[in-house]
Amino acid sequence: MTTSTRIKGFILIGLLPALLLYSFFVIVPIFWSAYYGFFDWKGLGSAKFIGLTNYVEVFNDPIFWTGFKNNMLIVAASVFGQVPIAMILALLLTRASLFQRMIRASIFMPMVLSSVVVGIIWGYIYHPQIGVLNFVLDATGLEMIKKVWLSDPSVSMYAIMVPIIWNYIGPYMIIFIAALQNTSPEINDAASLDGVGPVRKLFQVTLPMIWDTIKVVIVLCISGSLKAFDLIYVMTGGGPAHTTEVLASYMYNSTFNVYRFGYGSAISTAIIILSLILILGSQYLMKRDYR
Amino acid sequence: MKKTLTFAIMTAFIVSIIGCSSGNKEEASGKPAASGATETKAPEKVKLSLWHNYTGDDLRAQTMRATLEQFQKDNPNIELDVQGIPPDGYRARLKTVAAANEMPDLFVMWPGVMTREFVGGELLQPINELLDSKPEWKEGFLPNSFTEFTVDEKTYGAPMALSPTSILYYNKTIFDEHNVQPPKTWDDLMNLVDTFKKAKITPIALGNKAAWVAQSSILSSLADRVTGTEWFLKAAAGDGAKFTDPEFVEALKHLQQLSDAKAFQDGFNSIDNTQMEQMFAQGKAAMMIDGGWALTNLAANASPEALAAMRATVLPSIPGGKGNPDSLSGVVGTGLGLSKKVEGARKDAAFKLIYAMANPEVQKKTLEGNQLVSYKVELDTSKVTPIFAEVYKLLGTVTTTPVYDGRLSSAVADVVNNGLQELLMGGNPEAIAKKIQAAHEKELAGSK
Questions:
Q1: Residue A250's closest chain B neighbor by CA?
Q2: Which of B95, B265, B421 is opposite residue A239, by nearest beta carbon?
Q3: Separation of alpha carbons B439 and B448, rounded Å
Q4: What is the tens place of the pLDDT at every residue in A249-290?
Q5: CA distance B161 to B406
Q6: Distance (Å, rounded) from C-alpha A213 to C-alpha A200?
Q7: Are residues A240 and B421, on separate chains, in Cβ contact within 8 Å?
Q8: Considering Cα of A232, then A236, then A238, then A243, what sign does the dihedral take?
Q9: Measured between beta carbons, which residues in chain B are less than 8 angstroms from residue A258?
């Protein structure tokens, strides 16, 4: 009994510094910003208490919902794009031959680049006059699908998703590879002895064994997508006319371009609430897993 | 994971900016205030912090940095803590420290809205004392130079530049090849657009990714041609005119005519101002509508032949318009703002620096660096590019009208900017005018 309390005490002391830092830099600011949301504040001079007006405006603001819709598109692209692609790559690249290590490194490479660099590179790929993409389409006789990729609202959001997926596949692939290497070989061997084919083995043996990892990756994917900002900010700035705005870029613009600090805080609080709902929702859905 | 990290770093960065500047401030204000009180006469060493955005490689920035170094040498008893911040992020950082009430002692500040907002936040102190002590210097500025730096008859800055925002630049070589003249009327312009379209040349280069270009460079002048200046001032004051008025909708329709006629290159909403200037400089477009800031960039980047082919004029007149066609929209440039917290010996030193950065000699050097100034200076045309000399001459013959984002609050200007992007993609002018008016009314109601 005394040992267990001592261990608990030790855990508590061990956790304390991280907990303090975390609450000071994450938890407290969340409440702080929720509090600012009740004010009409231009960032200068005195703030005026206006109750729930900002929050009501946020939920009635069409641009906020455009941003939310775009975020959902990115979430979908990440969960149904990044996760399967990362999984396939992980399955193909579990072994560590020189060639496979090279491919792995090159898939991971965009992660090491600053997202500003990635944004500028893709901005040039999509450039309306000198862009590589339109040039390639021209050269291969596919002129009819040439587009002004980042200015045309009907395609711009999808054009942005490609670099987002490309950029963040690396870490998910590494997580999957780690999980695959941790599965016990005995079960695999047993399945083989029982004459299980490779497809069936994948769905009934391998995937169930790493299901927990998949869940974690999906949660990471959702929360990462809700925070999508840097690439979009560099590539389009949320424009033209808010068509590629996401929640974070709208929050940034409202706060630091338009100087409505109160309204920006209300938006960020709304983002937190929506994110929590989504994460909890996805957790609930995945509870009923197929193990 | 990466994103979380980026965010953490950004947050840490902002915190450190605020943290650092506050640290400097205490250090800077604590020491001299204590010693300055006992003996003011002795050449006490004083510290001043200064923020500027002269980080570029253009002649203007080089001149200003050299001026600062010279000042430092001439005044060993004044210790400057200078921070150069790249222009793109400058406003945001200044606003951030303003929100935290941790302003540097001196900082490059814009006239108009920014000055009024800072005065409203009680962050500035007037520099009338300095201006009145040097009447000759004060007289040397062009008329109305101080208007946008003045709030309640107190002046808070002396302009170090002049920014006409909507000059119609055109490429003489291309015009000659097609035997056409610069447009005098709106119909001329539309005909030119047709001619160049047929010749497969982009008529007008536009880089509207950062959304202010169409507003500041095109609409400010174009709308003035249609509505007249008086209407805009009334609408901005919310007094007897509204953005839903037919004149303003008419102005929006004129702008839309340009995009409907495909006057701009494809994808103009996804390239930026610099890329548009490059397009024009490389002769890929016959015209561009840009501000005076293009001159320094062109001087630094365009080839001598390209520069020689460039000409400048004002936007064409519009039939039935109420505005004076011999005008272009513009604002005086930035000046140094002085924080309210600077007192005593530090204030004298600050005045000295403000003068050193905007005195006749520096204004002349700035002008020779291909940057227009709001100061009476004889221009030696051999020292500047031909296009600069032409713009300088043009400015002598026209009057200046207000710029939209110089008068409207940031929130309304943002709605105008996004509205114009929408308009140029085929949006409905009436609906956009309504959005602008709604945002403007909200802003007016909030400030009362």
A1: B414
A2: B421
A3: 15
A4: 898 888 877 778 888 899 999 988 988 898 888 888 877 655
A5: 15
A6: 20
A7: yes
A8: negative
A9: 410-411, 414
Q: Residue B53 and residue B295: Cα distance in Å, rounded?
A: 17
Which residues on chain A place their C-beta less than 8 Å from a C-beta of chain B? 25, 40, 42-45, 111, 115, 123, 126-129, 148-151, 153, 167-168, 171, 220, 224, 227-230, 236-237, 239-242, 253, 256-261
Regarding predicted confidence, which is higher, B18 or B434?
A: B434
Top mean pLDDT of A52-56, A85-89, A226-230, B372-376 is at A85-89
Q: How confident is the model at residue B273 (pLDDT cuts 50, 70, 90)?
A: confident
Residue B381 lies in a domain: no
Q: How much is the pLDDT for A93?
A: 86
Check which CATH number belongs to the domain holding B430 and give it: 3.40.190.10
Shortest CA distance from B120: residue in chain A: A45
- Total domains in chain B come to 2
Could you tell me the domains of chain A? 53-287 (1.10.3720.10)
Which pLDDT does position B8 carry in this prediction? Answer: 55
Rounded to whole angstroms, the Cα distance separating A125 from A134 reads 8
Nearest to A58 by CA among A85, A76, A37: A37
Q: Which residue of B has its CA nearest to A222?
A: B1
Residue whose pair of structure tokens reads 């140094």 in the numeric block: B336
Mean pLDDT over all residues of chain B?
84
ipTM: 0.79
> B101 and B225 share a domain?
no
The residue segments making up the domain with residue B152 are 8-161+333-376
Can you give the pTM of this predicted structure? 0.79
Co-location of B139 and B237 in the same domain:
no
